[in-house]
Design goal:
It is a single chain. By secondary structure, the chain is α+β, with helices and mostly antiparallel strands. Helix 3 packs parallel to helix 4. Strands 7, 10, 11, 12, 14, 15 and 16 form a seven-stranded antiparallel β-sheet that branches. It is built from seven helices and 17 strands.
Length: 318
Amino acid sequence: MTSANAASTTNVATRAPRPHLYVASAEKTDDDSVLGQFIPIHYHYQMLNQEARVGGFEAAIAEVVKPGMKVLELGGGSGVLSFFAARAGASKVYCVERIPHVARAAQGFLAQNGVGDRVEVITADATDYLPPERVDVVICEMVHSAMLREKQLTVIANFKKRYRERFGANVAMPRFLPEAVVLAMQPVQANYEFHGYNAAVPMFLDGTGNGGRIGRMSFPAIYSMFEYNDDFTSHFEIDHEAVMETAGTLNGLRFITKNLLAILEHEGRSIDWDMNDLIIPITNPLQVNAGDVVRIRFRYDAGDSVLALAESVNREDV
């Protein structure tokens, strides 16, 4: 990451030794990313209690799922999204959950909530499972900020390939929920001080306010946007020259993830879920002035760990 005044090419960045956030290039996953694939039931309260997530899916499913439809949920967890589909009128919902004790819990919850007769809970890996019939809607919420940790893209790409193999190369794809995603990056000045203790750690913050932890240094830059029904890549990268809007210390990158849960073209709107922002610290902060141009480069793959992204942001050759 280098900085230059907009009117010159003078390099004003200083280069320190190997960043302290450095991780080995092969360390694409870690224990934290593996947890994203195996979420036990005692973690589901945090997800069920996220109004932006659950309320957004509730509204999107109510708009998209019509009476008599067949629905598949990949990675069902507690079963709440399958419940919304059944409540919206789906005649059959296949709810696929890999962890046996979570699948059993979901089956019990769905029965208690009066839809157990229409929702079939299948204990299986979402990357391998195919329903015995064509479906109208596929719900898959294996999403993490910046598309890290979890396997949303792998699961959906595998599903599309195997669905065509079973039902025909020209078969119409089901509608996916979420329907699309927008990924953006923004340079920020972050406050890493905690009760007098400075620790530049990655942070997950509510994008609506961020608790006063970040100040925006430049406008966001979109580095990927796609619809799940289209072909998409699982590799992301950016080489962007950001113009600083204000003076200060550029010491973090804010990663913004907007999930378009349902695109309602007839109404000219979408039902969205803005995930928590991910703030990645910059090991060698830059002092910048308004008008300075900072070149920002990084690359990573969907499902990588947070540490792998931090390494890319802080590589010595950037």
